[in-house]
Amino acid sequence: MRAATLKATREPPGTAFSDPAGTDDDASLADKAYAAILRGLFDRSIPSGAELSQADLIRLLGMTVQPLRDALRRLETEGLVTIHARSCIRFVRADLELSRSTYQFRTLIERGGARILAERGDAAEIQALVDDHHALIARLESSAWSAEENVALDLLEERLHGALISALRNELIENTARRLKNYVTLVRLDWLTTRPLAIRTLREHLEILNACVARDADAAEAALVAHFQLALQRLIGME
């Protein structure tokens, strides 16, 4: 996957990244700048792998300097940008290596959650997920596939993987998982979900959930690992 690279312009003296004390208003503006940059990445107005100057981003996003700098620092800690002082801001490239790393990290985090959900997860929550998966599969097998079903699939993915993360009861992992969603979104920008692929994904989810219903932690973990391996293969075109 090759992305356009925009030529960076050098910053004038005195515009290096600083760290002044901020106000609540500054924090709010920084959050808006952070969200605007993510939107730019997700809608491709900021190309994957782009190298931009601070001035480029100010023009592109209509942001003022300080909130933009604060947002970029946050994005740098999350690994989405690399800041080269007085030179450019380099955005992460959504390539094969990033896809592999993202799914490897998801596997490391969620396999433990699968075990815990199987061992002591709420039975009613698990059964509700099972029932809703079966209901969506039935809709899809009747040849229904539209934006509505796509949204339903996304919601079920969010619920299942959210349950796996929540089962760990670890705030640090939950924060990391929220950041990881940005990587997942980036590497899946070119992903086209079709009805057969949606059904396949839902059936893989059911393998995890059925193991949880049976309170079989080993099977739940194995099904989770297999699901991510297959998802990665689909993403990079190996399946």
TrEMBL record:
<dbReference type="InterPro" id="IPR008920">
    <property type="entry name" value="TF_FadR/GntR_C"/>
</dbReference>
<dbReference type="Pfam" id="PF07729">
    <property type="entry name" value="FCD"/>
</dbReference>
<dbReference type="GO" id="GO:0003677">
    <property type="term" value="F:DNA binding"/>
</dbReference>
<protein>
    <submittedName>
        <fullName>Transcriptional regulator</fullName>
    </submittedName>
</protein>
<dbReference type="Pfam" id="PF00392">
    <property type="entry name" value="GntR"/>
</dbReference>
<feature type="domain" description="GntR C-terminal">
    <location>
        <begin position="101"/>
        <end position="230"/>
    </location>
</feature>
<dbReference type="GO" id="GO:0003700">
    <property type="term" value="F:DNA-binding transcription factor activity"/>
</dbReference>
<dbReference type="InterPro" id="IPR000524">
    <property type="entry name" value="Tscrpt_reg_HTH_GntR"/>
</dbReference>
<dbReference type="InterPro" id="IPR011711">
    <property type="entry name" value="GntR_C"/>
</dbReference>
<dbReference type="InterPro" id="IPR036390">
    <property type="entry name" value="WH_DNA-bd_sf"/>
</dbReference>
<keyword id="KW-0238">DNA-binding</keyword>
<feature type="domain" description="HTH gntR-type">
    <location>
        <begin position="33"/>
        <end position="91"/>
    </location>
</feature>
<keyword id="KW-0805">Transcription regulation</keyword>
<feature type="region of interest" description="Disordered">
    <location>
        <begin position="1"/>
        <end position="23"/>
    </location>
</feature>
<keyword id="KW-0804">Transcription</keyword>
<dbReference type="InterPro" id="IPR036388">
    <property type="entry name" value="WH-like_DNA-bd_sf"/>
</dbReference>
